[in-house]
Amino acid sequence: MAVWLSLCGAVVLIAYLLGSFPTGYIAVKQLKGIDIREVGSGSTGATNVLRTLGKGAGAFVLLMDCLKGVLAIALVYYLFNFASSQNLIPTPVDVKIWQPWLVTLVGLSAILGHSKSIFLGFTGGKSVATSLGILLAMSWQVGLATLGVFAIVVAISRIVSLSSIIGAIAVSILMAIFHQPLPYVLFGVAGGLYVILRHRGNIERLLAGTEPKIGQKLATESENNA
Predict the structure, then answer these.
(1) Nearest 5°: phi and psi at 117?
(2) Among 3, 36, 62, 111, which lies 20 to 30 A Cα-Cα from 167?
(3) 111 with 47: CB under 8 angstroms?
(4) Nearest C-alpha neighbor of 19 from the set 105, 129, 138, 117
């Protein structure tokens, strides 16, 4: 049992490190020679990269951050397949129960890594793209439906942060609609709340009517991790 628990713990840790990989920071540093945490909203995510470097770089960071989430969940499935082939899963472990819970823990770990990267002094982005990747790997139906909600809101409002917040709220509802396991529903609640909390500054600007739309710059360049 100790070996199995160690393997599970290792996967959770690796997921955090995957989430921590600072794609946006590296992209902006290499292409423009600046620290993205010192411009725009201070976030290392795709939206701030879009404002800083344009659509191409923004799309690249979005894809890579999403891929981090997919890979984190893929690790869990690989672990169970490998452990099963090597007879490393203890008899008391019910795979049907353990796997969804481990997927949930790994997903939350990757989200935390993206927003609190160990490579950037525990700063980072808002975990939206990484969360999308996790959802697509966890339940492609929920992932695509969430992406649809995001796309509709952004098409109407042209405000990425508002679309992200609405999408985060929708996840829990969609998990229930698609009859996902309890751990996944709890992931939707916890992950959604965390993403919303990461948007505190955006919510303040939305209420004040100063949140920029796509293509616009922030009114202030001094707010970090907003």
Answers:
(1) -70, 130
(2) 36
(3) no
(4) 117
Q: Give the predicted TM-score (pTM) of the model.
A: 0.89
Say which residues have a Cβ less than 8 Å from residue 121's Cβ, sequence separation at least 6.
none
Check the CA dihedral 183-188-189-194 and report its sign. Answer: positive
pLDDT in tens, 209-223: 888 888 776 654 433
Q: Token pair for residue 56? A: 């191409």
Q: Are the beta carbons of 106 and 138 closer than 8 angstroms?
A: no
Report the distance separating Cα 175 and Cα 116, nearest Å. Answer: 26
Tokens (6 digits) for 82: 């490998």
| Identity of the amino acid at 121 | G
Q: What distance in Å separates the CA atoms of residue 50 and residue 62, rounded to the nearest whole number?
A: 9
> What is the pLDDT, as a whole number, of residue 222?
37
Average pLDDT over residues 160-170: 94
